[in-house]
Amino acid sequence: MERRTADSFQEEDIALFFLDILPELKKQADVFMSRAAESTFIPPETLQVEAALDPSMGWLDISFETSDLNEEDVFHLMKALKEKKRYYKSRAAMFP
Fold it and tell me: pLDDT tens digits, residue range 22-38?
């Protein structure tokens, strides 16, 4: 079993709040956030993902277009997706 640090629990708690709790709270009340809190996550509408299947090669081609992630972040984001993580923390401390 992997040992977890206090930082990883904090990151998971933040992701849980933004991904699960906050959307439910927004259904019940008006929610106002500071710009710093809003900038913690990359809004899904700014991340454009395209996928295409090349039947001759049997390959899946996936491309990302966003101004918020650099090439290294996209590589680590794909790794996080492969590991079935619900979030990825970029070097800019955003949680797409």
Answer: 889 999 999 998 888 87
Strand partners, 51: 62
Q: Is the separation of the CB atoms in 49 and 63 below 8 Å?
A: yes
Q: What is the mean pLDDT of the chain?
A: 78
Residues 6+ apart with CB under 8 A from 19: 86, 87
pTM: 0.54
For CA atoms 58, 64, 65, 69, the dihedral sign is negative
Residue 53 burial class via C-beta count within 10 angstroms: exposed 0-12, middle 13-18, buried 19 and up: exposed
